[in-house]
Amino acid sequence: MGDLFGYDFETLPIYSLINSTIYIYDYGVVEIHIDKDSTWSTVSTLIQTMKDESQIVILTFDEDLSDVTSSINFISTNYADLINANHLNAIRELKLDVTTTENSTNSVLINSIVNTMFKNVTNKFPISIRHYNESGINTNYVSIDAQTYITANNLKSYLEQEVGYLRNTSSKSRMYYSLTDELKVSTSEWQSNIFNKMRSTINATASYSQDFVGELNNKDIIVVNYNNTQSDISISPASLISADAYDYTNKRVLQGSPTSEINISLDANSYAMVYFTNISKLEIDENDNVYLYSKNGRILETNTDYSAGSVNAFQFVTSTVNVEDARIILTDPSFEDMGFYIWYGTHGAEAIGSFGKYDLIIMVVNTEETGGEPAAHCYTKFLFLRSWNTSVNY
C-alpha cells in the first residue's frame, strides 16, 4: 500500500478538525475510530465529505469483546455502505483495534468480527488488526497491523522514537496521535527535511552503534541530537570512499574526512541529513533544489538541437556563407552560478553575421575586474556598433 504520513484521532472527530489538521500540518491520511455505539449517519456523512474533498481515511473499529453480538450487528448493518460510490474512494483500509487478552478463545471471537467485515465490503479494502497477535487469527481475512505509530509529549521523546525506527525498520510510513500542535509541526518538518530528502532507501540494520544515527543504503546518514543541550558529535563513517560530507539540513560542509571521522555540531533537539559525495560546490536554490558540481567536471547534454529552425535556436542564422552565430549556454538554470560554455554551431567557428539583429549584447572585458570577477558591459545594438573598440581584449 506504500508509505503514508497520517494522524490518528483515536475518536470520531468533527470534519473541521480533520480538514484543518490535513492542511495545516500536511498529513496525507487520517485515522478515525468508531465502535458499536457510534451513530452511523454521522460516520457516513463524515466519510462522504472527505471523499468529496479527495481526502483519505483509515476507518478503525474499537473492540473489547464485551458485546461481540452487538459489534457484529453494527458491522452487518452498516459496513456495506463503504463500498458504494459515496464512500468508496475515501477509504484506504479498515482496522480492528482490539483491547483484550491474547488467547485462542478470543481469537475465535475476533475472527467472527473480521469475517463479517470482509463479507460486507466484499474484499474491497485491506483489513488489519492492531494490538493483538495470536496464532489463532485467520490470516485469510486479515493481517496483523505493522504500521508504525508514534506519540510523544515533548520533542526529545519524539526525536528518540523517529531515529529509533530509522534503525530497525525500512518503512517511512508513520501514524501520529495524541500530539500537541507544536509536535504536529515537528512531524511535518521531519517528513520535509528527512524523508523527502533521502537519496536512497533506509538501511534497517544500521552499521553504527550510536543510537542517534540512522543510515541509508547509499551510506548517507541521519544524525539526531535528542538531548536538551547543544552537542558536538564525532562520527566514524562506515566503509566510505567519498571525499566530502555535506550537512544538507543546515547547508554546510562538515569538518573531517568521511574516510575516517567527521564532526558535526547540532543544536538541542535537532537533526541533520548528511550526504556523502564528491563535491567541489553545492548550490541550493530558494525552492530547495540541489545542484551538485563534481570535482571530475560536469557532463553537459549534447543531444539538444541548437541548429537553425530548432525551437532552441533563438535568432540563429545558418548558410554556407553565414554560418551559425556563437551562443553562451548557461549551465545553471537558476542563474545563480556563473558557469557557462560557448557553442559555436555545427560549423565549429564563431561567425556572427550581423550584430544589428540583437536587442542587447553583453561583452566581458577580461582586462578589467570588479570584485574579483571580469567586468560585464551591456550595450544596446546601436551603441555597441558605434563604440566598437578593437584595442580592448573582449
Characterize the structure shown.
The chain is an alpha/beta fold and 394 residues long. It has seven helices and 23 strands. Strand 13 (244-247) and strand 14 form a beta hairpin. Mean pLDDT is 81; it is low at 294-300, 347-351 and 366-394.
Quick overview:
The protein has 7 helices and 23 strands.
The run of helices and strands is EHEHEHEHEEEHEHEEEEEEEEEEEEEEEH
Number of helices: 7
Give the class from helix and strand content and strand pairing.
alpha/beta
Distance between the termini: 61 Å
Q: What proportion strand?
A: 25-35%
Based on Cα principal axes, name the global outline. Answer: elongated
Mean pLDDT: 81
In percent, how helical is the residue content? 10-25%
The overall strand count is 23
Assembly state: single chain
Biggest sheet overview? 8 strands, parallel
Query: Under CATH, the topology of one domain is which?
Result: TIM Barrel
Low-confidence stretches: 294-300, 347-351, 366-394
The CATH class of one domain is: Alpha Beta
Tell me the layout of helices and strands.
Layout: E1 5-8, H1 15-25, E2 29-34, H2 40-52, E3 57-63, H3 68-78, E4 91-98, H4 104-120, E5 127-130, E6 143-144, E7 149-150, H5 155-166, E8 174-177, H6 181-193, E9 202-203, E10 213-216, E11 221-225, E12 231-235, E13 244-247, E14 252-253, E15 255-257, E16 261-266, E17 270-277, E18 281-284, E19 290-293, E20 327-330, E21 340-343, E22 360-370, E23 373-380, H7 381-386
Parallel strand pairs: 1-2, 1-8, 2-3, 3-4, 4-5, 5-6, 7-8
Antiparallel strand pairs: 9-10, 10-11, 11-17, 12-16, 13-14, 13-17, 15-16, 18-19, 20-21, 22-23
